[in-house]
Amino acid sequence: MFMSRTIVIVGNGTMPAFAASAIDDGDLVIRFNDCRSYGSAGTRTDVVAVCNTGRPARAMIGGTAWKTHPAVRAAASLWCVRDGGKFRALRGKLAESHPDLGDFCDDLTAGFADFAAETGKAFSSIPRRYHDRLDADLSRFGAEGYVVPSSGLLTIAYVLGEIARPQDTVRLAGFDHRGWDGHPFDAEQRLVETLVCGGRLSRLSPPAQRLFSASARTLPGSRRQRRLP
């Protein structure tokens, strides 16, 4: 039988004061791109999930700053969040709707795969089906006129779909649901809150509150006696 794990997905948004220790206590910690919250939000890094198309990808893989970042160096795994085939299919549509995004669909996945191989890291690409599924899910939460789901939401979907086991706890930290206007952040927030309410996810909470929540799940006679994932 597998031991239960705490998986922490760390965004680059606002962090509570207790975040660093709570994140570093996780069993699997996932950070994003340039790992801006590294340090103030702990240092443990098991996975770096990267936006592998367009200018952000080129900046990361084309220079040395990202490659030598302590979080990137510490990570055992590298995940590319964008499926190359999906973005090739989007290129024509975006050329009409967002002509300023001329290089947005340029696929740099091979460069990240080569870097992972050179540095002894495991490498994965999030399958296209998660992007397709999120497009359908987001439409139910009022998303329209957006470019693509955020890297954070794609990673959440992948973790829930393929990484987390039923006994694991998945926590979010640093997710303000704000940023580039090409992401449907309002709809993403509504989707995430639905997952939180359903017990699939939780927001990072203070240690005392986490202890209380764990007790509530196992307290005899409690309606929450069944352990939530």
What structural category characterises the helix and strand content? alpha/beta
Largest sheet: 7 strands, parallel
- Helix content range: 40-55%
CATH class: Alpha Beta
**How many strand elements?**
7
- How many whole angstroms does the radius of gyration measure? 18 Å
Instruction: Output the CATH topology.
Output: sialyltransferase cstii, chain A
- Count of helical segments? 9
Estimate the strand proportion. Answer: 5-15%
> How many domain regions?
1
Low-pLDDT stretches = 211-229
Strand order of the largest sheet: 5-4-3-2-1-6-7
SSE string: EHEEHHEHHEHHEHEH
If you average the pLDDT, what whole number results? 89
- State the shape: globular
Organism: Ectorhizobium quercum
Protein name: Urease operon accessory protein
Explain what you see.
It comes from Ectorhizobium quercum. The chain is α/β, with parallel strands linked by helices. The chain has a single domain, classed as sialyltransferase cstii, chain A, CATH 3.90.1480. It is built from nine helices and seven strands. It has helices at residues 19-24, 54-62, 70-74, 84-97, 109-118, 128-140, 151-163, 185-197, 207-218; strands at 6-10, 28-32, 47-50, 77-80, 122-125, 169-173, 202-203. Strands 5-4-3-2-1-6-7 form a seven-stranded parallel sheet, sandwiched between helices. Helix 8 links the parallel strand 6 (169-173) and strand 7 (202-203). The longest helix has 14 residues, at 84-97. The radius of gyration is 18 Å and the shape is globular. 36% of the residues are buried.
